[in-house]
Amino acid sequence: MGERQAFAADVGRVLDLVIHSLYTHREIFLRELISNASDACDKLRYESLSRPELLGERPDFEIRIVADKDKGTLTIADDGIGMTPDEMAANLGTVARSGTAQFLETLSGDAKADSQLIGKFGVGFYAAFMVADEVAVFSKKAGVDSTWVWRSDGRTGFTLDETDAHVERGTAVVLKLKDDAKEFLEAGRIKDLIRTYSDHVAFPIRLGEPGEAPGAQTGEPEQINTASALWRRPKSEITDEQYTEFYHHSAHAFDPPLTRLHFSVEGVLTYTGLLFVPSMAPFDLYDPHRRHGVKLYVRRVFITDHLDDLLPRYLRFVSGVVDSDDLQLNVSRETLQKNAIVAKMRQGLVKRVLDELERIAKLPTEEGSPDYLAFWEAFGAVLKEGMYEDGANRERLTKLARFRSTHGDGWTSLEDYAARMKPGQDAILTISGDNVEALKGSPQLEQAKAKGVEVLLLTDAIDDFWLPVSDGFDGKPFKSLTRDAVDLSQIEGGTTDEAEAPVDDPTLDRLLARMKLTLQDAVKDVRRSKRLTESAVCLVADEGGFDLRFERFLKQHKQLDALAGRILEVNPTHPLIRAMAEAPDHEAERVEELARLLLDQARVVEGEPLPDPGAFSRRMGRLLQASLQPSGTAP
Fold it and tell me: Which end of the chain has fewer CB atoms at under 10 Å, N or C?
């Protein structure tokens, strides 16, 4: 018996959730283990194209189910690629799925609520512990002589040993079933589950009597599934339930798909596709290593599930199958990169996905219809990446985009925004920040609010990338309110205080000059503002520079050494500014103190770090102390 090894740190908590929170859904363990077996067969079938010796004396593939009522065990075995000891330790001793840390941070401790999170995370192999007190995995790597066994009770870690048990090739998962899970030893129950969840698996699934070796069968095993490639069957022969279970199988997901695309293409290229758009975002959606979930087949033979060129990264939430008749069966994964056939298929796949999203976006919101706004909530920030990366489809993606705005609490399209634009408005106004509520209180919005002009509230980091490369919408450019040159004076409607501030104001001009001298290099300039109606000051970027949030992003990621100088805009009608402008010369020091305090205040509102928080605190303390002095008493 090998030394018992501890699970990776995250596994214990995931297993506890799987075992206890998914109790009512535990029949899916069989689907998950059959899916893993199918993947293993697919991988070996591909490898055997260039190394036929890996198949040995078993050229065919099958998945075997063995129920042993005497021993209380259920075995799921395959003729697939198998695993080495290192692969067993890596794949079975850790949660080999991106996003684990975020998943664990989201757990609430409420079993019922937490069980819903599994739909985003997936459980795969670990579903076995929902029904088993102990799991043994026997595996022999194709082309290798030794067989190894991994054993665990799902709580105290695992052991890994070489074994004399005979496994000709592939993997056999042996479950010692719990007392309350013996229903899964009944042939009728097993057949129902296979036909419900795994009928589409392209390899025969056979149910037979137990043999001597793990996963071996005796007698005449019965094939349970149809073993036909679902994507090659006519749509009229496939039920919604079969489509959904294929999605669960191919994507290793638990949520119902938002929509599906089943199509055949004939002409210059011939290929078949079955693609799914999920209804829930997986936890690893923003993991830099995440790929799309579309598998490439050639004439029903699995080739790869790691072909990045098949879909752009901004569609990485799409899963399914593409089966080509034009590629060579013995094509290498390296050859597929930048392949002309793959590039042509990519164009067609992107067009079909965007066509489907456009169709859904036009549907009325009603029960039973795909909810486009729910989709945008989950995947909008990812789809926006295409507005930056994919110039050919940028216009289509821009029309699909939805935004928060000052018009209301819901989402709006650019088409609806354009219909609400004010007379004299020649640009789509935007402001970017970390969250919607903070943006609604931003001082840069004040003039727009006063004139009743709608502003898009942008909170996704990708917004700062696609906006500079965008050509606008419907002939209207995008313009950020945090830039220096924004002027809304030509827009009709609303009321502002602009008329109350005379253009020639010597006292204000002297104050602006004094503030500029006081603040020196801390700001690029100090100017009177047209955009402020309530706040005393705000910071804006120079028209030729980066937007404020984008510049902070670049500095945070070490792309800039320091932030560029800001322009401090001053509200000429604000009571504090008027008081500072009219202050006598002997209060010059106090005016300078207020100028520094106002700059720090503008930085805080903008979310920028204070260069000297201690100095800010002391100034604020002196100001508060002065406000408590008796009238006419010096502070």
Answer: N
Output the six-digit token pair for 390: 């994919």
Per-10-residue mean pLDDT for the chain, 635 residues long?
Answer: 63 60 70 89 90 90 96 96 90 52 52 46 72 94 93 85 90 95 95 87 93 90 89 92 90 90 94 96 86 89 86 96 86 75 95 97 80 94 96 96 94 95 92 90 91 94 91 93 80 59 80 93 90 92 75 70 79 93 90 93 87 88 78 50
DSSP 3-state of 133 = strand
- C-alpha distances in angstroms, 178 versus 19, 26, 283, 528, 546? 12, 12, 31, 76, 62
pLDDT of residue 93: 59
Question: CA-CA distances (angstroms) from residue 595 to 403, 566, 577?
Answer: 36, 15, 10
For 49-80, b/e burial (b = at least 16 CB within 10 A) is: beeeebbeeeeebbbbbbbeeeebbbbbbbbb
Q: How many helices (H) and strands (E) does the chain have?
A: 20, 21
pLDDT on residue 118: 47
The amino acid sitting at 563 is L
C-beta neighbour count of 173 within 10 angstroms: 25
Take residue 386 and report the two structure tokens written for it.
Answer: 């295409």
pLDDT score, position 572: 93
State the pLDDT at residue 99.
Answer: 43
Cβ neighbours of residue 468 closer than 8 Å, sequence gap 6 or more: none
Burial of 365 (0-12, 13-18, 19+ CB in 10 A): exposed
- Please give the Cα distance from 574 to 25 (Å, whole number): 63
8 A C-beta contact, residue 292 and residue 316: yes
Mapping DSSP to helix (H, G, I), strand (E, B) and coil, where does residue 421 land? coil
Cα torsion angle, 293, 298, 300, 302, sign: negative
Residue type, 611: P
Exposure string over 429-466, b if 16+ CB within 10 A, otherwise e? bbbbbeeeeebbebbbbbbbbbbebbbbbbbeebbbbb
What DSSP letter does each residue of 205-257 carry, written as one string? EEEEEE-SSTT-EEEEEEE-S----GGGS-GGG--HHHHHHHHHHHHT--SPE
Residue 94 and residue 89: Cα distance in Å, rounded? 8
In the numeric block, which tokens belong to residue 187?
């042939």
Give the pLDDT of residue 635: 45
The reported pLDDT for the residue numbered 109 is: 53
